[in-house]
Amino acid sequence: MSTDTTTARPGRRLLARVLAPFLAALALLLLPGPGPGGAIADAASVCHGRPTRTIAFATGELRLYKTRHYACAVTIAKRPGALRPMSVSLQPRGGRPAVKAGRFGRQAGPVTVHALNRCVRVAASVSGRGTATGWILC
Fold first, then answer.
1. What is the largest CA-CA distance in the chain?
2. Is 109 within 8 Å of 66 (Cβ atoms)?
3. 90 and 113 in contact (C-beta within 8 Å)?
4. Strand 50-57 relative to strand 84-92: parallel, antiparallel, unpaired?
5. Residues near 96 by Cβ (< 8 Å), separated by ≥ 6?
6. Distance CA 134, CA 123 (A)
7. Omega before 110 cis (within 30°)?
8. What is the pLDDT of residue 8?
């Protein structure tokens, strides 16, 4: 009793030729890609952890995130566009501040510091106007 495998292979090849492009087209339709709003990255995606504080000021806002071991901060301009001076500073108690300053169009940062069981102090500015906190997240 002999089984002929040569007849089964052309059927499999034909199935693979038809099924592979169909699955690829289906994946392109179902998976999100750049589209309206899809190409703009939200600032929340640059820092790991849960959002802890959002502090608004006249020209932007300061967003602070915390994991168990780290704290992360980013400054977002209220009106993104032209390059302007922006800065963000994050300092753990007993440590040196991590600073990101320069001319940016949308955001300054992220800056991350090790803050396990430590308070942090944050400062941010956009176009010379900004905010600073005392020791928080203690």
1. 88
2. no
3. yes
4. unpaired
5. none
6. 9
7. yes
8. 53
Token pair belonging to 120:
């942090």
Decide if 122 contacts 93 (C-beta within 8 A): no
Strands of the chain (E only): list them: 50-57, 60-66, 70-77, 84-92, 98-104, 107-114, 120-126, 129-132
What is the DSSP secondary structure assignment for residue 136, as one 8-state letter? Answer: B
DSSP code at position 34: S
Straight-line distance from the first to the last Cα atom of the chain, in angstroms, rounded to the nearest whole number: 79
* Cα gap 98→80, rounded to integer Å: 23
Q: How confident is the model over 7-45, as pLDDT tens digits?
A: 556 666 766 677 777 667 666 556 655 444 433 344 445
* Coil vs helix vs strand at 119: coil
The residues, ordered by sequence, that sit 6+ positions from 119 with a Cβ below 8 Å of its Cβ are: 92, 93, 135, 136, 137, 138
Q: What is the CA radius of gyration of the chain?
A: 25
| Contact yes or no for 84/107 (Cβ under 8 A) | no
Q: Model-level pTM? A: 0.67
Sequence letter at residue 12: R
